[in-house]
Design brief:
single chain; alpha/beta; Rossmann fold; 5 helices; 14% strand; globular
């Protein structure tokens, strides 16, 4: 009788698996684990970078966001008031920085963004204001309500400007969700700068036409 244990039987590879496949699979898995995770795609940019310039040799009529003795009307939506209040604060701070006194500013609150155009039209038709600043906030919900309100507000404010010739600056936030508002509250001050710049260039145009 032999004092040696019998050799263990050789294990056969499972059907369809070639010798060495398991080792190769293990090495591939190790390599995959060692690779860095793919970087998340960047969010799409909302504007193209770079400065605008007019070629030399042309006459240029360009406004500046300056105040002076100009009167400004502000129409602001009470709906989503936590956001629109901050937009209004930013707009008023920008007007103060531009040197426009409080008694030259009229604030007209309205129920919602849908009412902004008719309020802007009413202020513009008085001819007392160099520009109108419209502030509001529309947040997308589960119904098409957002598309109708945002679209009507934008087209109505443009119509108010076209019909009266008074610049109407668009300071209405259109958001997918409320949390996006914090990153866009500068829109109130931006709308003021836009309105003042357009008021200034229109004043220059009228002065040039009278020469």
């Amino acid at each position: 009788m032999s004092d040696r244990w019998p050799e263990p039987p050789e294990l056969e590879d499972p059907p369809g698996v070639e010798p060495g496949d398991a080792a190769e699979d293990g090495a591939a898995a190790a390599d995959a684990a060692a690779e860095p995770a793919a970087a998340e795609p960047e969010a799409p940019r909302e504007h193209a970078e770079g400065e605008f310039r007019v070629p030399d040799g042309y006459g240029v009529l360009e406004g500046r966001p300056e105040g002076g003795r100009r009167a400004v009307g502000i129409v602001v939506s009470r709906f989503n008031g936590a956001v629109t209040s901050k937009l209004l604060e930013g707009a008023l701070a920008e007007l103060d920085q531009a040197g426009i006194p409080q008694d030259a500013i009229t604030v007209m609150p309205v129920p919602g963004a849908f009412e902004l155009p008719i309020a802007a039209m009413a202020l513009a038709k008085t001819r007392r204001y160099a520009c109108i600043v419209a502030l509001g906030c529309v947040i997308r919900g589960d119904t098409p309500h957002f598309d109708f309100v945002a679209g009507e507000a934008a087209s109505g404010l443009q119509l108010a400007a076209l019909e009266t010739g008074v610049p109407v600056a668009f300071g209405v936030l259109t958001l997918a969700e409320a949390e996006q508002a914090d990153d866009r509250l500068e829109k109130g001050a931006e709308a003021v700068r836009t309105g003042l710049e357009m008021a200034d260039v229109f004043a220059q145009l009228r002065a040039a036409a009278q020469r």
